[in-house]
Specification:
This protein has eleven helices and 17 strands. The protein is an alpha/beta fold. The chain has a domain of 221 residues: Rossmann fold, CATH 3.40.50.150. It has a seven-stranded mixed sheet, with helices on both faces. Helix 4 packs across helix 5. The termini are far apart.
Length: 318
């Protein structure tokens, strides 16, 4: 029997709670924010402007918006060494949820992403998933006859993906010699975790075949739900989601890297979440029965036609 929206969010709350519980170690009790020994200040990761506007504090972190390009990002942000250690020892709750995906929520979205990418070019034979977790997406790609390669920093999840037969690396992208060009590089809910998106995209571009494609699924700072809920939105986690791109900022950073947008769409409307919030209930655990429109004003079709969905799916090419 298909789970209700509330039941789905209750399952995902396990992942949220597991992540947030790890924040306490880093927080300065006198400020309620992350200790400065773990963090550093930075300029806008898209346009390098250094006049951020304060948005709000969340779970130890501080979100700001660039006054020049409207990029939303964490500032200060964890230093590279601490962020890497955080991911290497991170929980594996997400892989457990994906691997037991009874309602096919993840596999449906993964297959839609594969359909989109494979429709953009022919003779694509190899695929790299950066942040592959336990390899659930690569399992589906392998069924399509693609050579599957994965990168995963979390030790336990890396082992799971490797045991499935995928060519898997437990290292950072820049440290790996693949011995071959790659046709498709995917980052499912990973690019927002990367502090320097420009360096990341340029590194990916260097291993991409001439007709290769880059697929990104990222939380959208332009999402209607994110703008409505503000700090109450789970998009803002305070430590891992260091860069939250919107429609124009993802275009801008792609252009800086000599890449163009081959396609862009949004998925996941979050209509139920917004209706719960507008009914003064917990956004994620409320009992709204209205899943078709936001207060009868805007429906799911309109949300996605206007790129107002919770996550952006972007395909880039040279």
């Amino acid at each position: 029997m298909k789970k209700s929206v509330k039941e789905l969010h209750a399952i995902r709350a396990k992942m949220w709670d597991a992540s947030i519980s790890r924040h306490e170690h880093y927080i300065d009790k006198s400020t309620g924010l992350f200790s400065t020994k773990f963090t550093e200040e930075r300029s806008c990761p898209v346009c390098t402007n250094n006049t951020p506007a304060f948005m709000f504090n969340k779970e130890g972190g501080t979100y700001v918006k660039c006054s020049s390009c409207n990029m939303v990002y964490l500032n200060p942000v964890f230093i590279d060494e601490e962020l890497t250690k955080f991911y290497q020892s991170n929980h594996s709750v997400q892989s457990e949820i994906v691997e037991t995906d009874e309602d096919d929520f993840y596999s449906t979205i993964y297959n839609q992403g594969l359909d989109s990418v494979l429709s953009k070019a022919q003779l694509l034979t190899s695929i790299l998933d950066i942040g592959c977790s336990s390899g659930a997406f690569l399992d589906l790609a392998a069924k399509r006859g693609l050579k599957t390669i994965g990168i995963e920093l979390n030790e336990s999840e890396f082992r799971l993906a490797e045991q499935k037969g995928h060519e898997t690396y437990n290292d950072s992208l820049e440290n790996i010699d693949f011995k071959q060009e790659i046709d498709i590089v995917c980052m499912w809910d990973v690019f927002e975790h990367i502090k320097d998106g420009e360096v990341c995209l340029n590194t990916i571009k260097s291993i991409l075949s001439i007709n290769g494609l880059i697929f990104l699924q990222i939380p959208s700072s332009d999402a209607l739900a994110a703008k409505m809920l503000g700090a109450k939105c789970n998009m803002y986690d305070g430590i891992e989601h260091v860069n939250l791109y919107g429609i124009e900022t993802i275009k801008k950073i792609a252009n800086k890297c000599g890449l163009e947008i081959a396609s862009m769409k949004t998925v996941i409307s979050e209509i139920s979440v917004m209706n719960n919030y507008l009914n003064y209930d917990d956004p994620y655990m409320g009992d709204t029965k209205n899943q078709s429109s936001v207060h009868g004003i805007i429906d799911e079709k309109s949300i996605h036609e206007n790129l107002l969905g919770y996550k952006l799916q972007v395909i880039l090419r040279r």
